[in-house]
Amino acid sequence: MTQSGNILTSKDGNVAVVELSRLKKRNALSQGLIDEMIKVLSQLDQDPAVRAVVLTGSQQGPFCAGADLAELATISTTEAFQRGWLKDLNDALEGFRKPIIAAVRGFAVRQHTSTYQD
Predict the structure, then answer these.
(1) Residues sharing a CB contact under 8 Å with residue 3, sequence separation 6 or more, in sequence order
(2) Is 84 left (phi over 0), alpha (psi -120 to 50) or beta?
(3) Which of 14, 29, 41, 109 is most exposed, with the fewest beta carbons within 10 Å of its own?
(4) What is the Cα–Cα distance from 38 to 20, expressed in whole angstroms?
(5) Parallel, antiparallel, or unpaired for β 2-4 and 52-57?
(6) What CDD domains does the record point to (predicted)?
(7) Any idea what the CATH number is for the domain that residue 57 is in?
(8) Which domain range does residue 65 map to?
(9) What is the tens place of the pLDDT at every residue in 9-51?
(10) Which one, of 6, 16, 88, 13, lies nearest residue 46 by Cα?
């Protein structure tokens, strides 16, 4: 098992397990955690031995509590937009060339966005 800040990574054969481990903040997505996830995903995408990834929260906490609201409260909406907050992670997940399975324990809430078109 490898620890990169708030992420634990292990391999079981051709499957990599990426475990969010920011327990004090219930795995809330901070800029630091997002950056770590992007780095780990990039490494796993380039690893020919990895055929799939399981993304999960630690055994002691939730999968992910969502955005780190305390961190977001310190920046403006404009600054969050300019930083590409969450966009870079979304791009990394969408561009990942291998299957990603989310192993979620407990509640899961999906944000739905839609665009109204005439």
Answers:
(1) 9, 21
(2) left
(3) 109
(4) 12
(5) unpaired
(6) crotonase-like
(7) 3.90.226.10
(8) 29-103
(9) 999 999 999 998 876 777 778 888 889 999 999 999 999 999 9
(10) 16
